[in-house]
Specification:
The chain is of the alpha+beta class and 580 residues long. It folds into 3 domains: 81 residues, Ubiquitin-like (UB roll) (Roll); 204 residues, Alpha-Beta Plaits (2-Layer Sandwich); 246 residues, Rossmann fold. Helix content is 26%, strand content 20%. The chain is built from 18 helices and 27 strands. It has a 7-stranded mixed β-sheet with strand order 15-14-22-21-20-16-17, with helices on both faces. A 5-stranded mixed β-sheet has the order 2-1-5-3-4, with helices on both faces. Helix 8 runs parallel beside helix 13 and helix 11 crosses helix 12. It is elongated and about 85 Å long. The chain starts with a helix and ends with a strand. The relative contact order is 0.12.
């Protein structure tokens, strides 16, 4: 074989030119993918890496040729790269083609950006600014299309729909439910459900994430807060053991919505509706701080708790009750406090497993950190029976209850009755707890959206949980309370951050946590020893944002965008000045 032939056979990339720059593309990539991987933006609406190619918005028009100078317009999303291809994406003729597409998309689009929930994270709004014309020759009356609720979570505004069909393809190809279809023809086309059906599959909220305009809106958060006012925090959903990566969006220290964040090893670009709405638990009935049943300050409660721990004999039995909603750091501190005492763990009841057409799975295990509990304690099947037996026998000097389950765990009445036999009782609970009655000290525990720490999902991937709510009122973090107890007991020299506690945990349990650190876990998580999931952190993110709205949402969080700016109107006609 000649050297030239060997070189061709060994070559694993395709050499193309985009706007005069040499780009190495992957075989099978289309021009849009190759450009985006090279950091070159080509506007598009209908294309998404998690869906099939539709090619119906035509916004990604570029000029390309297989050999020689670019000589014809093609849609970048449905044109595969070939060796030697030359592509224009920024020339005057490309811009003219894209302007023409925008003009037709805006003919029937209403000028209602000031009242549209999508404003500030809308691709049509941004592309109108970037590629739209200043004026339009069309004077015809705009076509009116219906507005309706497609399902319990999704509202449809037909006048805003550009019929990109992302939502239709998602229901067909990912959810596998096929409730949506394009009805009618031409300019009277829009999206609707089949007669007698609702858009109520377990992933229906993802259609809102996918919509590049304001046609599909989340009924749960509609007309609540402008996107540019939201503060977004990378975290992990606490709804089940899948551990979907999410953005926790807050305003004035209140969670307004959860949206999926891309992680190819966990949830790709999706999340379920149950997890999406789980943020509501953060604002439901919460446990307060009390001493002997009377409302107290956190400082006074900590002082009383320290006194209780300081008075215990060295050999006194400390029993611990925890849950599968506790972070790894909290579980480690509970293990530390119990020493050789009995430990019991409670879990939220399992539900059904649901698997979509593309393999996305909603875990039957509704506890975000059961696997973490197994790795911290050596077993996740620590029923509270041993704790109950020791309590009944009157052998427990101190019972520490840490109930992180929103709404509270389902503790048996017999266990709650036996708890009264403990000499002292300290309760840390997110929701009002049956153990609080008669307890020496009660602390209000935090919701997972308020915590810094980590979970291990059902496939053994360590993932960071970050505090999105920071003003928790008369509360202190569960990790801080547990460390104060450990310091008072003489088990720890000082109070550490969650990262410091995790370092101690990883050092104490190398077979379970290996060399994992917060830094290694980053935003994508890291597989632990023996994990079913082996995807490295650097391979968990693709070239595409975590959701179509992320491009707009990132712009909305930019400080320059928050200020008063002068720009074209969202529909591409005229100008506006004001806070966008």
């Amino acid at each position: 074989m000649s050297d030239a032939a060997s070189e061709v056979e060994a070559k694993t990339t395709i050499s193309i030119t985009i706007d005069g720059d040499a780009v190495e593309a992957q075989p099978g990539d289309n021009v849009l993918q190759a450009a985006m991987k090279a950091g070159k933006m080509i506007p598009h609406y209908c294309w998404h890496p998690g869906l099939s190619v539709a090619g119906n918005c035509r916004m990604c028009l570029v000029f390309a040729t297989k050999a020689g100078p670019p000589n014809k317009p093609v849609i970048a999303c449905n044109t595969q790269v070939v060796e030697g291809m030359e592509v224009e994406t920024k020339s005057d003729r490309v811009k003219a083609a894209q302007e023409g597409v925008m003009e037709f998309l805006l003919i029937n689009h209403p000028l209602d950006c000031p009242v549209c929930d999508q404003a500030g994270e809308c691709d049509l709004q941004q592309f109108s600014y970037d590629y739209g014309r200043e004026t339009s020759p069309f004077v015809e009356e705009k076509t009116q299309r219906p507005r309706k609720d497609l399902g319990p979570l999704v509202r449809f505004s037909g006048n805003r729909c550009i019929v990109c069909t992302r939502c239709v393809r998602f229901c067909d190809e990912v959810a596998g439910s096929s409730e949506l279809s394009v009805v009618n023809r031409g300019e009277m086309s829009w999206i609707d459900t089949f007669p007698g059906l609702e858009l109520d599959n377990p992933l229906s909220g993802c259609t809102v994430d996918l919509c590049p305009v304001g046609a599909l809106l989340d009924r749960d958060s509609i007309h609540t807060t402008r996107p540019w006012l939201l503060r977004s925090t990378n975290s992990v959903c606490g709804g089940c053991a899948t551990g979907c990566n999410v953005n926790v969006d807050t305003f004035q220290d209140e969670v307004k919505r959860l949206t999926p964040r891309e992680n190819q090893a966990v949830n790709r670009w999706w999340m379920c509706d149950e997890g999406r709405l789980s943020y509501r638990e953060a604002h439901e009935a919460r446990s307060g701080v009390a001493i002997d049943g009377q409302e107290a300050t956190v400082l006074a409660a900590l002082e009383r708790a320290r006194a209780i721990l300081g008075d215990l004999d060295g050999g006194a039995t400390v029993a611990v009750l925890g849950t599968g909603f506790a972070t790894n750091e909290e579980l480690y501190l509970l293990r530390h406090l119990s020493s050789d005492g009995p430990v019991g763990l409670a879990y939220r009841a399992d539900g059904p497993t649901w698997t979509g057409k593309d393999g996305f799975t909603i875990s039957a295990d509704k506890n975000p950190n059961r696997e973490g509990a197994r790795r911290v304690f050596g077993s996740s099947d620590l029923a509270p029976d041993d704790v109950q037996s020791e309590l009944t026998a009157g052998n427990v000097a101190l019972l520490i209850v840490h109930d992180a389950i929103p709404g509270g765990a389902e503790w048996s009445p017999e266990l709650v009755t036996a708890a009264a036999k403990a000499k002292h009782r300290i309760v840390i609970s997110h929701s009002p707890s049956p153990f609080a009655s008669g307890a020496d000290v009660v602390f209000g525990g935090l919701h997972w959206t308020e915590k810094d720490g980590s979970f291990v999902n059902g496939k053994g991937r360590l993932q960071r949980v970050r505090a999105a709510l920071t003003e928790s009122g008369a509360r202190v973090s569960d990790v801080e309370v547990l460390q104060e107890l450990a310091v008072a007991r003489g088990l720890a020299p000082r109070v550490l951050s969650a990262a410091g506690v995790f370092r101690k945990l990883a050092t104490a349990s190398p077979s379970s946590f290996g060399d994992a650190t917060y830094q290694r876990a980053g935003d994508a998580g890291v597989p632990l020893p023996g994990a079913e999931d082996t995807v490295a952190p650097e391979d968990a993110h693709s070239f595409y944002p975590a959701g179509p709205k992320s491009r707009g949402h990132n712009r909305a969080n930019d400080e320059q965008v928050r200020g008063s700016v002068h720009r074209k109107s969202a529909a591409g006609y005229g100008t506006t000045r004001g806070d966008v």
